[in-house]
């Protein structure tokens, strides 16, 4: 695996893009609250925006609601109160097809990876492009290059069940990035890799951001966050504090 990384630049991550405050937010929450079933409110009074081409960390102690907030942005759960607007559209007014259309504009790295076990790594990563109707020949080089980037070039024809947790995580990251989505939501995307590899993956997220993607990385990892001068969305006691 090391060889595949030899040509990577190990310099500090490049500076983040400046965002234009006048652009329509990619995500906007207005007084949002959420509870699971009849349980207590997990998140309360959330009002914030995520701008186009912006980069932010989402952090807070275990159980603070980071995954829940990502699920709200992914529209896989609905708020119990307040308004969620994604790509300028208010989520409660959108039908199922509309939601699918909005989700296709996002890349998501789930904590549990969600790779398809009956497809090879290459096929998993290529799947979002196939769903877009593209032919294999048109994306083969892109998929191979990205798999090389994350150090999985030599593993691309294996099935996910034989991979380590860190390898699965990198494959899940490659799948989320391959379409250059407008919004990337990543839940602890470096939780299963060593610090050196975590830095390289962070660099990949920053490169994606430089190409125009808004990036949200949920993490506990202070060392990782300290590498980038990025906005921090900090959850605690159900509330959100923003450190610009
Ligand atoms: N499906 C669910 N049903 C009921 N409660 C849930 C559900 N999912 C999460 N919770 C509760 O909501 C709270 C927030 O969970 P969440 O997974 O969003 O936190 P987190 O900040 O992502 O935690 P971690 O850092 O440990 O992954 C927790 O108290 C959790 O027990």
TrEMBL record:
Keyword Membrane applies: yes
Coarse class of the protein's main subcellular location = membrane
- Recorded superkingdom: Bacteria
Record keywords, A-Z:
ATP-binding, Cell cycle, Cell division, Cell membrane, Membrane, Nucleotide-binding, Transport
| Ranges of Acidic residues composition bias in the record | 1-12
Region annotation Disordered: where it falls in the sequence: 1-20
Pfam families documented for this protein: ABC_tran (PF00005)
**GO annotation terms (biological process):** cell division
The entry's protein name is Cell division ATP-binding protein FtsE
Q: Which organism is it from?
A: Salinarimonas ramus
Gene, per the UniProt record? ftsE
């Amino acid at each position: 695996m090391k060889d595949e990384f030899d040509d990577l630049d190990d310099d500090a991550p490049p500076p983040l893009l400046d965002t234009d405050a006048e652009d329509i937010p990619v995500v906007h929450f207005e007084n949002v609250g959420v509870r699971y079933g009849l349980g207590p409110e997990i998140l309360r009074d959330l009002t914030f925006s995520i701008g186009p081409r912006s980069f932010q960390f989402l952090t807070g102690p275990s159980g603070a609601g980071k995954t829940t907030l990502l699920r709200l942005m992914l529209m896989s759960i609905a708020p119990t109160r307040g308004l969620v607007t994604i790509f300028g559209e208010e989520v409660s007014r959108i039908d199922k097809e509309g939601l699918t259309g909005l989700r296709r504009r996002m890349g998501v790295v789930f904590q549990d990876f969600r790779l398809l076990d009956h497809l090879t790594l290459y096929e998993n990563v290529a799947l979002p492009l196939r769903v877009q109707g593209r032919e294999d020949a048109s994306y083969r080089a892109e998929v191979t290059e990205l798999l090389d980037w994350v150090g999985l070039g030599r593993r691309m024809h294996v099935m996910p069940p034989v991979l380590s947790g860190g390898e699965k995580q990198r494959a899940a990251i490659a799948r989320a990035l391959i379409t250059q989505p407008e919004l990337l939501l990543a839940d602890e995307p470096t939780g299963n890799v060593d610090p050196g590899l975590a830095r390289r993956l962070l660099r990949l997220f920053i490169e994606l951001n430089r190409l125009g993607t808004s990036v949200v990385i949920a993490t506990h990892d202070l060392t990782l966050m300290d590498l980038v001068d990025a906005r921090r969305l900090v959850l605690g006691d159900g509330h959100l504090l923003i450190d610009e």
